[in-house]
Design goal:
disordered N terminus; single chain
């Protein structure tokens, strides 16, 4: 085996997927029970049944840990293929709203967003771990709609990227505000009305 063989130079134990999942579950549980200010790495380690050093080998501190605990919840979101852009948007809106109804998701998201107003590095981590990852749903929805002929293809990559950002912001912002700020339900009727308004705006933008 040569000195450059990656197997020969690898050190340390491999990460345990089960341990990671237990830690992230414990983080969300601790947030619900204790809130951001009282959550500690020690408490999370105890709840997860791991040594505190195990946490610090994976996460530098509480900020990074909580963001990742939120991010894995958002990774559960999928864009259903319901045959039309309107139906696809309605589906993901209802999924997102249902996710935000879960105490661990609602509490964790509100905690990291509030804390990020005082911490630029935390804000950047939220963007990379949650926002940028979930833009995949917008990109997939647009790709499907273009393939169906519901939306035209955009020749300018910078315009396409800017529009994807805008669509994501509109959908995420509306659902978060409705559920977490206004404390109003996101039901099928609301999802249909919201989607109609969104698609009207998209049609107008493409006609311009």
């Amino acid at each position: 085996m040569s000195a450059t063989d990656p197997k020969a130079t690898r050190t340390g134990r491999p990460r345990s997927t089960a341990a990671d999942a237990a830690i992230l579950d414990a983080t969300r549980e601790s947030l619900v029970d204790l809130g951001w200010s009282k959550l500690t790495m020690s408490d999370v380690a105890t709840r997860a049944g791991v040594a505190k050093t195990t946490l610090y080998r994976r996460w530098a501190g509480k900020n990074e840990l909580v963001v990742d605990a939120v991010a894995v919840l958002f990774d559960e979101l999928e864009l259903p293929d319901r045959g039309s852009l309107a139906a696809d948007v309605q589906g993901v809106v209802l999924q997102f709203a249902a996710l935000l109804e879960r105490p661990e998701a609602r509490t964790a998201l509100m905690a990291v967003v509030a804390e990020s107003t005082r911490d630029d590095s935390l804000r950047r981590r939220i963007r990379s771990a949650i926002v940028d990852r979930q833009k995949r749903l917008v990109l997939l929805g647009r790709e499907r709609a273009q393939a169906r002929g519901e939306l035209r293809y955009e020749d300018d990559a910078s315009v396409a990227a800017r529009n994807a950002d805008l669509i994501f912001d509109v959908i995420a912002g509306a659902v978060v505000h409705r559920t977490l700020v206004s404390a109003e339900p996101v039901d099928a009727e609301w999802a249909i009305g919201f989607t109609s308004l969104l698609l009207l705006g998209l049609a107008g933008a493409q006609a311009g």
